[in-house]
Amino acid sequence: MEKAKGIVWDLSDLYPDADETRIEKDMQEALELARDFRTRYYGKIKAADCDAARLRAALQDYEAMLEKIYRPYVMASLLFSADGQNDHYKALLAKAQDINSRIENETLFFGLEIQRMPEKQAKAIIGDPQIGHYRHFIESERLFTPYTLSEKEEQIINRKNLSGRTAFVNLFDEFTSSFLWEIEIDGEKKTLTDSELRQLMRHPDAELRYRVKKAHDGKYGDNAIIFTNIFGNIIKDHATEMELRGYDDPMQPSYLRNKVSAEVVETMMRVTMDHYSLARKYYELKARVLGAKKLKGSDLYAPVAKSQWTIPFDEGRKLVLDSFSDFSPEFAGLLEQAFSKRWIDAEVRPGKRGGAFCHGVTPSTHPYVLVNYVDNLDSVYTLAHELGHALHDVLAGEQQTLLTYHPPLVLAETASVFAEMLLTRKLLNMELDRETRMQILASKLEDFLGTISRQTMYTLFERDAHLEGGQRRLAADELCNMWIKRRNEMYGDVVDFLPEERWFWSVIPHFIHTRFYCYAYTFGALLVLALYHQYEQEGTAFLPKYRRLLSAGDSDWPEKLVADVGLDFRSESFWQAGFRVVDSLLNEFEDAVRWA
Ligand SMILES: [Zn+2]
């Protein structure tokens, strides 16, 4: 088995020969630039005489400084990702992190001063043509202005957080990462970690899956006192902070972070709930495929196919590039470079980090992609996904500068998930056996139902918990009942959940780490499907618009960028279009099931 042997990236575009003297020199120079920046601008941005010309000059200097640190920082982190056992790279990365955090400290004032500019002055600057494409960056920085407290108060909150909210987050992380389970496999008792258990939930043996799920969720229930306390305090802390800062809705900070409005998110969640029936239909079909009357909660991730399709790297690369070239020969050409110029590290080897990523460096350099390619269908999808990100970076790099280069959160997965859709179409148009076809459709449907329906269900539970728990302390049973109520809205009586699954709310780290993060997944996925639907309707006329959307990076509000493609977040039909794509995949799955 070759498994992409020899497919390693060439980092010489960043630093020839990985010249460490130069890498370290660049880091030092970046720190000098940051200190210099502070000397020149500290107190001058919030000053009454700051005008568009001064702010523009400051933004350009700030970007030049960021360019200087990003290159060595990314280099260090790529070297480390490729060979994590190399002590040399570990030290280099630690140094880059240290210098980067010193740079952040030196320049922290800049964002704060932009926030603290008097409203009238800020308006004048934003309206001044001299500010050019930086307008949106300034607007985004100032989103939180009405909710920011005095400098002294912010400092107190920050310091008290260390033993408050942050302490609960750390407790959650430390506690859950210490969890181990004893599971009997093939007559042998094994001690397993969380990620090993998650793998087993995809095991073909239903009885094993059942025991694994029971043990996994049951452990959270056994520790209900701790999880109820942690979540309860996170909720209370959030409520206190909302009150201090003057927010009137626990989800409001997340709207600002995602740069979308409450009405848009409401519409999206309502339409999603209206389409919960798609999830029910899918899981009923899945039960039939597995030969069960009804699915158990432990069957949701069960494999639908017995055999795995083997796809060597060269074939995978061809599939991905062909799926792009059916869409746009230009894009396929851009991505062909990723292979010919070696932007990709695909081989599996000891010491290399797991998973996959695409790292966009700066607009002046190309992105780098890391995958661990193991000759199966999932690997091909991962490759398509990361190359989608790479395309986004390349196109944004053509038009944007560093501060407007990285797409906003709700658009961050646009090109990657779109690339997965292109690959899906390509595969489904091929002559494939029934089982492979079912496997492709099931994996896409489970992805979409997982990111769309289930993340909305999570958000609805989280909102219930915050609205109620902000007022009074919730008991463990109350949280479980809130969870079951929202879960039943989605699954109806199609799935028999295990009694232990009532604790699943305490498994989800987002509730602890980043409040109201989950609906961003729904948002991103439905947005891509709506775009894909648009492409199916318009054909090649869609291409220039899609190109514009990707090259716009983070240069305007998501709503405006998408309006330019002819879509409107505010209308229900926008969100319904996404479900039409899911529905048509579901019909294809149903056909494949019925062949049997
Ligand atoms: Zn991604």
Report on the architecture of this protein.
The strands form three sheets. The protein has a three-stranded mixed beta sheet with strand order 4-6-5, with helices on both faces. It has a two-stranded antiparallel sheet with strand order 1-2. By secondary structure, it is mainly alpha-helical. The chain has three domains: 138 residues, Oligopeptidase f, N-terminal domain (Butyryl-CoA Dehydrogenase, subunit A, domain 3), CATH 1.20.140.70; 219 residues, Oligoendopeptidase f, C-terminal domain (Neurolysin, domain 3, Orthogonal Bundle); 116 residues, Collagenase (Catalytic Domain) (3-Layer(aba) Sandwich). 65% of the residues lie in helices and 4% in strands. The site of zinc ion has 4 residues, from helix 16.
Task: Provide the fold topology.
Elements: H1 20-41, H2 52-82, H3 87-116, H4 119-127, H5 135-141, H6 151-163, H7 165-177, E1 181-185, E2 188-192, H8 194-200, H9 206-222, H10 224-245, H11 252-258, H12 262-274, H13 276-290, E3 295-296, H14 313-327, H15 329-340, E4 344-345, E5 357-359, E6 368-370, H16 377-399, H17 414-428, H18 434-469, H19 476-491, E7 495-496, H20 510-513, H21 519-538, H22 543-551, H23 558-563, H24 572-594
Parallel strand pairs: 3-7, 4-6
Antiparallel strand pairs: 1-2, 5-6
Helix pairs in contact: 1-2, 1-3, 2-3, 6-7, 7-10, 12-24, 13-18, 13-24, 14-15, 14-16, 14-17, 15-16, 16-17, 17-21, 18-19, 18-21, 18-24, 21-24
The structure holds zinc ion.
Residues 385, 389, 413, 416 line the site of zinc ion.
